[in-house]
Amino acid sequence: MAPNQRVVAASSGRPQKGFLGAAYEELTAPENATIVRSLLVFGAGVAFLHSSLSEFLLPP
């Protein structure tokens, strides 16, 4: 009977990042800065237009 073999994966020495850590790293990457900035501006515009402050834009 052949002995049982154990396969041990080589690790880089640091623990793997979770979903939130990987997402945060992608959001803060320099090559994604323009996309993240434009999404934040769009979200702020939608929030402003949805709020009661948007009534100031209406003519009297």
Task: Summarize the SSE layout with pairings.
Blueprint: H1 19-27, H2 33-50
Report on this structure.
One of its GO terms (cellular component) is mitochondrial outer membrane translocase complex. Pfam families: Tom6 (PF17112). InterPro entries: Tom6. This is TOM core complex subunit Tom6. The chain is an all-alpha fold. The longest helix has 18 residues. The N and C termini lie far apart (about 90 Å). The model has no long low-confidence stretch (mean pLDDT about 85).
- The average pLDDT value, as a whole number, equals 86
Shape: rod-shaped
Helical segment count = 2
Helix content: 40-55%
Query: Tell me about the biggest sheet?
Result: none
Order of H and E elements: HH
Count the strands?
0
Stretches with pLDDT under 50, minimum 5 residues: none
GO biological process, one term: protein import into mitochondrial matrix
Organism: Aspergillus pseudoviridinutans
Protein name: TOM core complex subunit Tom6
Pfam families: Tom6
